[in-house]
Amino acid sequence: MTFTLASYNIQYGTGRDGIYDLARAIDAVCAADIVALQEVERNWKRSGMSDQPAEIAAMLPGHFWVYGAPFDVDAGVRDAQGHVVNRRRQFGMMVLSRWPILSSKLHPLPKADAGPAYNLATGVLETVIAAPGGPFRLYNVHLGHLGAGERLEQITWLRRILRAAPEQGGAWTGRDDDAAHWESDGSPPPMPEAAILLGDFNAEPESAEHIALIGHGNGEAPLYDAWAVPGAGSGDGVTFRADPKQGADTDMRIDYCFLSADLANGLRRVWVDGAAAGSDHQPLWVELDPEGAA
C-alpha cells in the first residue's frame, strides 16, 4: 500500500509574510498520511500563549499524534489569589499519523553555549508507526542552526540513537508476573530495523553534516537521501528560500527525508510544495510503498 509522508518546519505558524496563521500552515500538509512538524510551540506570546499541539490535533482529527519539546522552560504565573497557574513554554516536534503511534521517545541533542549568540535546545522525536506493510521507526529531527560543529556532534548522537534502538527494544520488553497490572498482557511494542528520518537538518547537500548522515563507507548503516534516489525527485528541492535576515543569501535544500536501506527501494516519489506560504520553510513530501521495497 502506497502512502505519503510530509515534513514541515512550520515556524510556529508564521509565514514569510510575517502573518501568524497556524491553520494555513497545517492545511498545506493535512492530506498526508504521516506528518512530521518542527517548531511547534506552547505558551509563547508571539503565538497568543496558545497550545499549538492541541490546536493542530483538532485540525487533523483522523490522525493519532505525539508531541515532544526539547526546549521546555517555566511560563507559570500566580493568579489574584496567589495560586500557581503552572505553564511550560515549549518548542518542539510533533508527529501525526493515520495509523497508531505504538510508542514515542524524545531525545534531546547536544547544545553548545555560544555566549551572546542565541542558541536553543533541539532534539529528535522517535516514534514507531503501525503503518501498512509493517511498523517502522520515524525520527522527526530538528538539528541546530548555530553551525556545522554543533550539528556534527548532534549527528554523532543521532547515529547512536539509530544504532541503539533495535538493541534496546520497544517501550517495554519481556513479561512481568503481574502483566495485567502493567497493562502488558499483549506482545511488547516493536522496535523495527526499518527507519525514516524527516525534518529540518539545517545543512546543505554534500556538506560535512550531509555526508555524516548518509554514512556510506564510514562503517555506519547507510541512509539514503530520498531526493538523491534516482528517479525520485525532480527540480532543485529548495525548502528554504534566500532570506538575508536569517543569514541565507541563497536558496537552500535543508529539509530532508532519509531512508534505511530496507525502505529505500519502496520510495516512489519525493517533491517540495513550493506554493505553501505558511512558514519560512516549504513542505517536503514523500510517497512510499514499503511493500514494494526489496
From TrEMBL:
Residues of the Endonuclease/exonuclease/phosphatase domain: 6-281
Nuclease recorded as keyword: yes
Keyword Electron transport assigned: no
Molecular function terms, GO-annotated: endonuclease activity
Gene3D superfamilies (alphabetical): Endonuclease/exonuclease/phosphatase (3.60.10.10)
Family annotation (Pfam families): Exo_endo_phos
Keywords: Endonuclease, Hydrolase, Nuclease
InterPro entries reported for this sequence: Endo/exonu/phosph_ase_sf, Endo/exonuclease/phosphatase, GPI-anchor_lipid_remodeler
Protein name: Endonuclease/exonuclease/phosphatase family protein
Organism: Dongia sedimenti
